[in-house]
Amino acid sequence: DSGVTQTPKHLITATGQRVTLRCSPRSGDLSVYWYQQSLDQGLQFLIQYYNGEERAKGNILERFSAQQFPDLHSELNLSSLELGDSALYFCASSVGTSGRLWTDTQYFGPGTRLTVL
Amino acid sequence: DAKTTQPTSMDCAEGRAANLPCNHSTISGNEYVYWYRQIHSQGPQYIIHGLKNNETNEMASLIITEDRKSSTLILPHATLRDTAVYYCIVYTGNQFYFGTGTSLTVIP
């Protein structure tokens, strides 16, 4: 158990809909990361937040957005869903710092499996 | 843009050492090498990381070449539960590029 929790575990929805995935980081961790894992793309970094502010962006679509709240939990919002958005979505957390850090171990949650029909 | 190259798959006999290689020839001076593994569809699990020196913990050992262009993860006594995809990652300061990893199968 990494200490990172994600809800829900499974989500089934239809094309065109909007969903929200939730992540609670490990106690004390300030950074939260979101990743998408699909069969054909592997693990892709989406976005990182540090202490409520966006820190880095990866391959995140404009239809997707995220935020980190004052209590440090994070939500990933996926809208106008397409069949290709079906994937495992992982959240990870790390201690993080305000500056660039060359070593910062990330701990991953169990993931949310999204199925778009 | 993965900065690492790993073999697609490897087999290892149970009880023997598993040696997983990784090439990271474009690594910069401050960038760390991380190893994670993913079992089935679970969240990736941290194994070990290092910069220049060899590292060892309760799970594995990490051997980094002197020029830092490659490294080897060593699982000293592989068990069936070590069957997983192993990712070698160069940490760029804010992103982990997981690449395709090495699928390790431990054979009874």
What order do the helices and strands come in, and which of them pair?
The complex is a heterodimer of chains A (117) and B (108).
Chain A: E1 5-7, E2 10-13, E3 19-24, E4 31-38, E5 42-50, E6 53-57, E7 64-68, E8 74-78, E9 87-94, E10 107-108, E11 112-116
Parallel strand pairs in A: 2-11
Antiparallel strand pairs in A: 1-3, 3-8, 4-5, 4-9, 5-6, 7-8, 9-10, 9-11
Chain B: E1 9-13, E2 18-23, E3 32-38, E4 45-50, E5 55-56, E6 61-64, E7 70-75, E8 84-91, E9 102-107
Parallel strand pairs in B: 1-9
Antiparallel strand pairs in B: 2-7, 3-4, 3-8, 5-6, 6-7, 8-9
Structure description:
The complex is a heterodimer of chains A (117) and B (108). Chain A has 117 residues and is mainly β. Helix content of chain A is 0%, strand content 51%. Chain A is built from no helices and 11 strands. In chain A, the strands form 2 sheets. In chain A, strands 2, 4, 5, 6, 9, 10 and 11 form a 7-stranded mixed sheet that branches. Chain B is an all-beta fold. Chain B is built from no helices and 9 strands. In chain B, a hairpin with a 5-residue loop joins strand 6 and strand 7. Classes of the chains: A mainly beta (117), B mainly beta (108). Chains A and B meet through strand 4, strand 5, strand 9 and strand 10 of A and strand 3 and strand 4 of B.
Quick recap:
Chain A is built from no helices and eleven strands. Helices cover 0% and strands 51% of the residues of chain A. With 108 residues, chain B is mainly β.
Specify the oligomeric state: heterodimer
Distance between the termini of chain B: 36 Å
Count of DSSP-assigned helices of chain A: 0
Biggest interface and which pair forms it? A-B, 29 and 24 residues
Strand order of the largest sheet of chain B: 1-9-8-3-4
Largest sheet of chain A: 7 strands, mixed
Q: How large, in whole angstroms, is the Cα Rg of chain A? A: 14 Å
Number of strands of chain B: 9
What is the succession of H and E elements of chain A? EEEEEEEEEEE
Helix content of chain A: under 10%
Bulk shape of chain A? globular
Structural class of chain A: mainly beta
